[in-house]
Amino acid sequence: MAEKIKSIRIHPGIGIARLGTSDEFYIGPETPGVVVDPGGSNGPGPNGGTYRDSNARLKRQAQRYRIYAYDANEKVVAELTSHSDVVHSVRWRVHVRNMKAANYAFQGAYLFDPDKLRNPSIQPGMKPIERDKLIIDPGVHTIASGQTQPVIMKGDVFRDIEKGTLPGELRFEGFTPKDPSKEVDVTYKAARDIELGQLRLDSKDRLLFVPAPGKGECVTTPKVVLSNPSETMSPPNGPEDGKNPLTNQFAYFNIPGWWDDTCCGEIDVTVTLKDGTVL
């Protein structure tokens, strides 16, 4: 079989994992129309499994990635695993980030204004990818054949920021600005060791990406309330007076000073065959 292999690809090309506060996880759907049972008992799963653990915490849904070999005509030869006769070893490389705090202000599906950034007073005038104080970036992590312990990817955010200002019209926890038209002084405390996910291998060295627990927090004092400003807006998105959540730079989904532990990124893999070929 080795002589037929000309290239490899990772499947699925796009994977989706789901957050959960439990340390337990199950592997998400891999076949169209098939509902995965999450394990356990006395639950709504197709085999009686439950999506929550014994403490009622939501289990995480992991994404499994597989490697397929292709021939010169781009036809599938076979799935490659550590159990394949031709495979010597597998090495996965993963780099995920959370750039929410550094990104453009969300203004609806696929929309943004290049002049409106989240947390605009921090590293202003930079492109989102350059605003490193606001990016949770654990760096590149690898996991290879033979590794049995999970690789936990962690990073920091709101680093090296002591003081700043925010609009007084925002709502703060336990604090009401005397003059909402003026900026409010705030202090920042860096968030450390935020887990964005874990890398694991199944019994055949397929990659399992286990997502984060789904945490979020405000790092400012005073804290900014999450309901800014949509709670006081009339449906669906409030009046067209500049405070519309879909155009407001500080609306609840653009709220400054907050982080969460979702992420996205890229995966690649190196397969070494027993004949020495590296793919």
Automatic annotation (TrEMBL):
Residues 30-53, 226-245 are annotated as: Disordered. Transmembrane segments: none annotated. Pfam families: LodA_N (PF17990). InterPro entries: LodA_N (IPR041168). It comes from the Bacteria. Residues 11-277 form the L-Lysine epsilon oxidase N-terminal domain. This is L-Lysine epsilon oxidase N-terminal domain-containing protein.
